[in-house]
Amino acid sequence: MIETRATLIADLPRPIRILSCVAASALASLVFLSAAGLSCMAQPPAPPVATPPAAEKPLPGFDLSSMDLSADPCTDMYKFACGKFPANHPIPPDQPGVDPFYVLYNVNTQELNSILQKAETSANRSPDEQKIGDYFKACMDTSAINAGGLKSVQPWLDKIDALGGDSVSRMKLAGLIGELQRDGVDAFFGYGEQQDYKDATKQIAFIQQGGLGMPEKDYYLRSGDKDVKLRSQYVAHVAKMLTLAGSPPEQAQKDAQNILAMETALAQASLGVVDMREPEKTYHLQPIATFTASLPGFDFPSYEDAMHSPHVAEINNATPQFWPELMRQLDTTDMATIKAYLRYQVLTTAARNLPHAFDAENFDFYGRVLEGQPEQRARWKRCSSAVDGALGEALGKVYVDQYFAGDSKAKMLQMVHDIEAAMGRDLDEIDWMSPATKALAQQKLAAVANKIGYPDKWRDYTTLIIKPNDALGNELRANAFENDRELNKIGKPVDKNEWQMSPPTVNAYYDDSMNNINFPAGILQPPFYDQTQDAAVNYGHIGAIIGHELTHGFDDEGRKFDAKGDLSDWWTPDDLKNFTARTDCLVNEYGSFTAVDDVKVNGKLTLGENTADNGGLLLAFMAYMQRAKEDHLDVNAKVSGFTGPQRFYIAFAQNYCENTRPEAVREQVLQDPHSPDQIRANGTIVNQPGFANAFGCKKPTPMVPANSCRIW
Ligand SMILES: [Zn+2]
Q1: How far is the CA of 386 from the centre of ligand 1 (A)?
Q2: What's this model's pTM, rounded to 2 decimal places?
Q3: Cβ < 5 A residues, ion ligand 1
Q4: How many whole angstroms separate alpha carbon 297 and alpha carbon 676?
């Protein structure tokens, strides 16, 4: 579910901050990374329509219309809760799939759009309104974009062309790569700022593998017809982009083949998605001289200058095994290939703001081929999302004023406290952990900071220049602004109030180094949080998501960080052994689920998310029952024909009602740490001790098996 290249998930600087979120990366990326756009093929550029044609409606908090009451919840809870969802929700041609996250994302996009249309035209605009309004206006002006041809990227293409084939030109690459990356062009590797894993009070520089055009390394290395075909489609796509920019077709085809060969060599030297989840494998703090010794001939100070980075004294060399191969490629690949690679990177980054043919070709590969999506999202949706990506807190400030109910924050906070209290009781009760480790776990739980809705202090965009007639310039300047803001943090104290998601985002996250849970206003809307529904439904929906984020602090990755957010070993060997036996149970269980065709869920890749889903639901149920007790709610009273616990579990399963294209499921399973939606519903239900009782299921049934897994 992607407006951008899934590959960005793997190699943008952002993932080095371990943020574990609730929605699949596809949706997360829609909101975060709006650099590369998508468009449908072979159609003339239609004049963009600024207004949504029909109103997107939020899903109800409790959705009877999606339920298949003929199904037996003890046999297939997903079918019972969501069986009619696909028939009622055909996949729109401009989406890879539809689920409650996507529906709400569409609702929010529509709301952002109405804010932006006003900001575009109103008189006496504030400086922030000028920026969001003009960014949107320029993005929507496809006539100007089409008429401009390659003018907006020409300075970049000229700089790349000016590189010669000699060793002097290779020396100049460091500075050029830095200039490109600062503008948001993904070239060869990633560089950014992170909290030091072992001392969360410090903000340091990190550098890591990158530069791949396909979602992750195995796309280059897997055998099998689908992958071989995909690689040839990737080559054809790169060649087409280069041809559109003026290369003779034969030369472009040759360059594209060579680019694939170079990227394949880089892929071979890259860590895979499972290894990238392990903080010890991506933490190698080094004096800068030690690091630069692994980059012979690469002028690192010039690179830092071009990136507007301070000259750092130490760096987290996240992927040491990558640099020898990168250096080999930069030294030995012929300059024609390196120049074609850089040209392609510029074109794909800029595609949304280049003439229609570029935008269409970029969509054809990243949307149609990779995700099976027949049509590109409407321009007004893409431009609204792009403003959220570039100026998220300027737009978010207005969004929160207009669409976030005043008392939502207080009600959410009560649920958060209820679920944290449930986790405290759960930690006390579990029988596999020693008192010593339990005490430290309780300490960590007590230190979790709760952030709800929006930042206390809004970001200052004063120095970012946005013009009404410069779509690509706006995007590149916004990328550079964000780059500089991030790198400016190196060496400074940590700002604990900072958010990694914009307020309208339909997602939530736990941050290991901050030890905080974050719920943007965008997800605190129906169906996830519905003021008209009772506790059973809201604890099943958003309560399970709160529990999910909290449990991330104690999953296979989060458990390695302590109360202060430092990577440190606070577990006794026996407790760790017990924990690992329990996580192995989940790895095996989820690894046995088939996602699509011949592709099974990757139990290791999804372990953290599955742990969070399972713990989150258990905690939310404990919290709901406790809340019912304290507020004297009759949980056996039936509403819409169901008891409180039944509605709790139905609401949870309905978080994951879905209708998804098989290509998109395939792409998700191969590189995303979240299991596919249906599996998130049933895979979690089978491990819930409260479920059998709620629905009167006899053991064993498919949803109440003889053996199940339990960590938290
Ligand atoms: Zn998560």
Answers
A1: 24
A2: 0.92
A3: 20, 22, 609, 612
A4: 45
